[in-house]
Each structure stands twice: as structure tokens, then as C-alpha cells.
Amino acid sequence: MPASPLTDETWPGLPLLQCNMDPGLYELYVHTPMLVFRDDVGSRVETADGGGRSVEFRQAPLRFDLFAQGVRMNAVSDRVATLSLVVALPPEWLPADDEGAAGRFGVRSLYQFADTELRRLVRRLAACHRSGEPLGSEYSEAISRTLVDRIVRLQLAAEAWHPDSASLDPQAREWLQRLVDANLQHPPAAAAMAAALGMGVVRFSRAFKATFSATPHQYIQARRLKQARELLRRTDAPLTTIALDTGFASHAHFSAVFRATTGVTPSSYRRVAAE
User: Fold this and answer.
1) CA–CA gap between residue 71 and residue 35 (Å, rounded)
2) Is 265:229 a contact under the CB 8 Å cutoff?
3) So what's the pLDDT on residue 50?
4) Where do you find CATH 2.60.120.10 in the chain?
5) pLDDT in tens, 26-49
6) 266-274 vs 216-234: helix axis angle to the nearest 10?
7) Domain 170-274 in this protein, CATH class
8) Confidence of residue 227 (pLDDT cuts 50, 70, 90)
9) Choice among 31-40, 91-100, 161-170, 233-242 with the minimum mean pLDDT
10) Taking a C-beta distance cutoff of 8 angstroms, is the pair 12, 20 a contact?
11) In the chain, ranges of CATH 1.10.10.60 domains
């Protein structure tokens, strides 16, 4: 992001930056979670939400945009010197969370929202910096801690109101699908998948279900059956071989699950597919 630091390493609070976007197209990548606020109309932004769906919006006055780490976006500025105040949210300022990446609370993107209390805190923090911290460094740090707490509370409230919105990002979804398909005989446990993504098991399971509309066990079973159907259609392999190759314990186990799911036996499915 074309932003200039307003603070340096001696500043005790959250890092502050000023974003100055002259007319043009900007391709941006967010390295550190950040909160963006402005007093006037801003740029047009195209990015993606947590589920990988395209999101487009125009930055409105007195609205916040919270960008998570790793977000990519295109921003189009059609006005001279559109200014935004940026509050960076480095990991060391985020609360501890055993279910988050690197043991820290995971900030999620939230666009074009208003919050009177958050606006008051951001403006007070900026005023402290501009005026040379007349109330001391401890006051600036306290405002910063309160600001982070407010962001965490707003995110938790949004997730509680829309629990199914907290899905995995597209890259994680694709990685999980490849991982499961490559290990149908010995699929990874939910805890192992969660750890690989830097998440706790509870949060991972919730996000997994929001992404795939199934629990990890249900999803693995569905992928096994999908592969089995392809083998039944395209090969003459014995049913026992297909069962073991796709991760079922035995021919009998495979046949029981297949019939319960499709309504027909594997043999019947193969006959119909060959006609």
C-alpha cells in the first residue's frame, strides 16, 4: 500500500501510517493486518472475502475497512490525493489465542463498517501522536490496547452473528482437497490439518464445515466415494481392490457405504454405467 509511516520505533502505541493515493490503479498486498479510516470519499476497491468471493466497494466517508494479512486487492483512485489513516495491527499487539496462527488472534477482513467507539479511539490515538503525547506514553499505549480490544470484540460479534461466514480461504480449500485426494487410504486427522494451517481444532472444524458443507470425516468419505465411482466406470478392477485403494476397510464396508449413499450396490452401479 502506498503509505508513509507517521510513527517510528520510539512510538509506544500501534503504528500509524498515512495512505496518499493519487489517481491511478494500485495492486496491493497486505503484509500486516491493518485498519483503514477516512473522512471523505476514497478509492474503489476490488478484493475477495474469506470465502473467495469477489467483493467490490467504494470507500465511504467515516467508514472502516479491516484488512487481514495476505489480502490482495486492486484499488482505483480517481481523485487527487485521497488520504486515509492506517492503523497497523502487528502480531505482538494481538491477544494470545491457542486456535490462531502463531498463537495469536486471527484478524479477518471486514469492509465498510461503522463503529462510533472505534472511531473515537482512532481519532484519539492520532491526536496523541500529533500533539506529542501530552498525557505520556502510557496513555498512548493504553488507547492502543483498548483499540485492539474493540476490533477483537467487533470481529467476534460478527462471527457469532454470521457463524457460517468464517470459511477457509481459497488457497486453503484447494490445498485440503489435494491433500485428502492424495491420502484416501490414510487420510490426515482433523488435528493434523488444523495444525498445518496454523489453526486450533475447534476453529478449523467450524471453518471446514462452512467451506465444504461437511465435517472432515463426511468430506473424506465423499471424496472416497467419488474416486470409487470413477474407478467403477473406467476400470475393470475387482471391488475389493477398489475398496482398499479408496480407503475403505474391506469389500463389505465399501459396499455398505456405497449402497447407503447411492441406493445401489457397486456392482449394479458398474453395470448401469457400462450400458
Assistant:
1) 13
2) no
3) 52
4) 3-164
5) 888 888 999 999 888 878 888 865
6) 50
7) mainly alpha
8) very high
9) 161-170
10) no
11) 170-274
| Architecture category of domain 3-164 in CATH | Sandwich (2.60)
Q: Under a CB-based contact definition with an 8 Å cutoff, are residues 10 and 132 in contact?
A: no
* Banded pLDDT at 20 (limits 50, 70, 90): confident
* Grid cell locating 48: 475477495
Which residue is listed with cell 461466514?
Answer: 165
